């Protein structure tokens, strides 16, 4: 009995546990990988959605504040005041215009300072109700940051306001020049600052929800967004990969970056409209992949579970599978011991039942084969007995023919003696002709004995002779035994005898161009029609006994040649009615030495 460690049951259980464990771990790893990717995409898209929402709200406020500066820059009364031609009343009216514009804006609460000045004698200014600042005049105007900017600057910088009380350091700045309509000459400047609470208020709860840090980026700088202020920050990083598939908006930028301290982050950056500002969320990668620590725990739970499943499978196979296998092995051992009876109890309705049915079928076949073997053995013994019995008959005939030959010789009947001798030779060749191939010389000797008998029968009216032989060595070629005698018999009985007179049969032995042996036998008898030639090689039953004998003799030789050498060899017949019939026998040129050397 095999050891359990080598049994099929143990191997199936081991392979099942191994593959189940492998597939389970692979499934867990793949599921965790896709889940982690899904979780990452969800966090990044949530970050993108929130920042897009905040950016849209911030953009609305910035657009409204920017609209105030645009309207003031295009107001003719404001322009007239900046040119220094306005009275005090007109200056007050311009101030009222500025106040009305600010009060009509929903973003007025974020306005820190609005100043319209020509930097000489006109300083029109408005501040929000929450702002407390020192009025700007010709003496302190230069203390404001950004006053030295030439041209237009819209929301490009975060600046401090030294004249505010208390002093603020995180104000968004607009500096817009005012030009005369006709000459395009600058006559003044609009100076507007907005509180950073415009951004921090919107993002007051956002960083704590998803984690990470928020930044405001512009072409000229970067600021970290705190709970209530903007702090200057240096955001230096190296980009490793840009994710173009996770972002929903085309203008959202998601990149895998590494900071200077080596920490890996995923950066989500959204533009605030067309202001040039961008909100940037820096998410640490350990927050995106926080679930990675769960993988070892999941595997540590699954592995024991799979092992327990393998043990249960082993016990189940031991109860269901192995018991049937043992019964099959016992039944096969009985067949090996000679018990060939069938056992229907092993023919279950499953795959093992198929094996049981196969064993029973094998038992029946073996029993049938043994019975047939016994019958064949009895038949063989009977045939051996008949063969031994038949060997006595030719021996008796040989002795009788020899007695006739000696009596004919003593009485001077030489013809009878020669015919008897020739017939004895033929009979001996037929009875002892166990060789399928003999030499052409031996075949010609048999043909000569047959011709001797026929010449005495026809009184010398028929002659058979070898007309030509191209090479004497061809007589040593091998040829199927009794191949020429049936052809000569057909030539005599079906060619010359119907003619009613004397006749001749010529034999030509030659070698073809490809080396084959060609033996042609031609007679000067009545000839054959094309239909008769065609019927010779047909297998249908002949109409007359004469046709039957002719077909059997020629077709027998033709088939034996093809069986011995192949379908490309055999007999061909040419004939002309009333003149001749020529039969050509084609076989390969083989010698006895070659035949003995073949495997």
Would you kindly provide a written description of the structure presented here, covering whatever features stand out?
This protein has 599 residues and is of the alpha+beta class. Among the domains are: 75-200, 2-Layer Sandwich (Beta-Lactamase), CATH 3.30.450; 433-597, 2-Layer Sandwich (Heat Shock Protein 90). Helices cover 48% and strands 22% of the residues. It contains 14 helices and 19 strands. The chain has a seven-stranded antiparallel sheet with strand order 8-7-6-12-11-10-9. Strands 2-1-5-4-3 form a five-stranded antiparallel sheet. Strand 1 and strand 2 (123-126) form a beta hairpin. Helix 1 packs antiparallel against helix 7 and helix 11 (484-496) packs antiparallel against helix 13 (545-565). The longest helix is centred in the N-terminal third of the chain and has 67 residues, at 8-74. The chain is elongated. The protein starts with 7 loop residues before the first helix and ends with a helix.
Runs with pLDDT <50, length 5+? Answer: 1-5
- CATH architecture group name of the domain at 433-597: 2-Layer Sandwich
Q: How many beta strands in the DSSP annotation?
A: 19
Average pLDDT score: 80
- Radius of gyration equals 61 Å
Helix-strand category: alpha+beta
Separation of the first and last Cα atoms = 46 Å
Per DSSP, the total helix count is 14
Strand order of the largest sheet: 8-7-6-12-11-10-9
Provide the helix percentage.
40-55%
The largest pleated sheet is described as: 7 strands, antiparallel
What is the overall shape?
Answer: elongated
- Determine the CATH topology of the domain at 433-597: Heat Shock Protein 90
Beta-strand percent range: 15-25%
CATH homologous superfamily designation of the domain at 433-597: Histidine kinase-like ATPase, C-terminal domain
